[in-house]
Amino acid sequence: MATGQTADLEAALSRVIRLADEHATALDSPMRCMAASAWVGGGAPAFSKALNEQRTVMQRAFQEAATQIAARLRQLGGQAPRVPSISTSVSVMTAARTGFSGMDIAAMEGLVASLQKAGQELPEAGHRLSAELSALCVPASSGKQIAGAGEWAQGQVGDLRRRLSVIQQEHDSGLTTKAMAGFGLFGGYAPDPGGVDKLTAAAGNGDAAALKALVALQNTGKDATLANRLNAWWHQLGKPAQERLMNQSPQLIGTLNGLPTTARDQANRNYLRGEKIWLGSELARLRALPSSDEVRKAIGEAEAKMRQLASVERSLAQGGRNGLPPAYLMQVELGGLGKTVISFGDPDKADRIVAYVPDTGTTLEKFDGDVQRASDMWAQANFLAPGTKVASIAWLGYAAPQWGNAGPAHTPGTLDDALAGAPALASFADGLHAAHRAASDARFTVLGHSYGSTVTGVAAQMRPKSFADQLIFVGSPGVVAMHAKALGVDSVWVGEAPNDPVGDIGSFGPLQPVTPDAQGVVKELAKDIWKGFVKGEGPFGADPSRSEFGAKRFYVPDSGDSIASFAGHSSYWGDNERGWDRRSISLRNIGYLINGQYDELVPFPESPDNPAPPRPTAPPSLAAEPKSAEEPTFHQIPSPRPAGG
Known about the structure:
Elements lengths: L2 H21 L4 H10 L6 H32 L27 E2 H31 L5 H30 L4 E2 L1 H7 L11 H9 L3 H13 L5 H12 L1 H10 L1 H6 L5 H27 L5 H25 L9 E7 L5 E6 L7 E6 L10 H17 L5 E7 L19 H20 L7 E7 L1 H12 L7 E5 L16 E5 L25 H14 L17 E3 L30 H11 L50
Parallel strand pairs: 5-6, 5-7, 7-8, 8-9, 9-10
Antiparallel strand pairs: 1-2, 3-4, 4-6
Helix pairs in contact: 1-3, 1-4, 2-3, 2-4, 3-5, 4-5, 6-9, 7-8, 7-9, 9-15, 12-13, 14-18, 15-16
GO molecular function: hydrolase activity
InterPro entries: AB_hydrolase_fold, DUF1023
Protein name: Alpha/beta hydrolase
């Protein structure tokens, strides 16, 4: 054997090992950034997997090249040293939870910078390795693999820098939302079974059909990631494109969950102004026509829309007055029973968010009283925790069942409207999570009243562990569950006035249990409801106020009205005919729950023989309490009660 050959192999092996020492850890730093920053949702897990795969392939290529040279050296009779392990492990110390939620932009900048460095160094290292192997007549595939890993890293840099630039413009605090962290940066790696990427691309170019398809997909509630995707898409559009879409398709943009509340409000108000002008001219045109059944019907429909529009305007007018924050119009749909979502305070920036889901009989035309309930909850929560940012939402995003001649499928005695409305509520909750700015202690509560609690119960089971932080049920006939654990929300509270007969409907008997999976729950509930009804069991599940259900109860006093009057069913917000009823124990407890002030709750009476004491003029803790400067001062202007009671 020629001594020169072995000497060349020994020198080459030394150079390859040194090359591996210098570059085999090139993708370790990006891996640490990903692991330590705990990216959530979207395509982040897939991105981490792809990064790790490239890192593994690159390190194995260095290992294989060194092993091949050592094997050739031994074949020629030389003394090959033991090839060291070139594989490295990335260990990350799990940090305690901090105020950061979503993504640390500084860490992201480090990730992009380390990817760029790897993208510059690894191709050169791969070419050097290929040259070494070719000179020794050893297969050079290892060098190509290393160069390929570097080219992959470099390919990520441009797109990630562009996306990071968008985030930095929107979030100058150094933190961003989970939606932008998960989808804004790594959305290209996320599974997309619904074809959302194609729809958003078309929608961004002004395709109204694509926008309608996104709204239709949203209404099914099947894709729990849709709101996050839409949030990221919207931020990446840029201001000119956003303004163009809000002018071209205001109602569609205003309906999309996950978009910023301020954008939805602007779009929906644009739509409302346009509809008011159009309806005025359309009514003038119709009234000038010769009378006929068709004309009279068209006039009636247009006049009904005008009344709905006026109701929305009256509700919005409450915002910014008497101590209330601005009102935001998050959805509006004229015609039929009508739909709208109105928030007092911006939920994207709030520390405490509560969404109120109304009862049977609710319509847009007479929604003023329900909106007042939302404003009352804001006033109470704000008063009990001054300085806390509160957002209180009146959510009429479903067609509530109606009394009278509404048809057999739309009466309060069936689950049809709850099953139809729950997907919309689940999607709305997705949107609140997606659009919320990073915060460590934000608390999201959904409060369902009567049939609204039934809708809430179904929606919660469609999003187990991700729907809300807390549920509050008042006057509930049942939430389509046999136990609170089935709802997938850790904190479940129930309030029931002693003279509220609706709250006892769930005690008629059990409903067949269901499996709360996101796509199958509605079908299973619909299948079981008739079976339970035939057996004489309660149509909406177990009574949430009973101890067996497993929810926590809060005190609601007897309103003093007879059970037959059903007035107790509307007593949870106190006597709010003339504004916020600060004397209401029930409303006060609701405020404590919204804020998480559980230790402050007004307790049940100590004597079991007297569970419903005479209604006081004020709770004892408030009787001598001076008027706070933080308390809104409401004018004594009559406001109608909600149609649903």
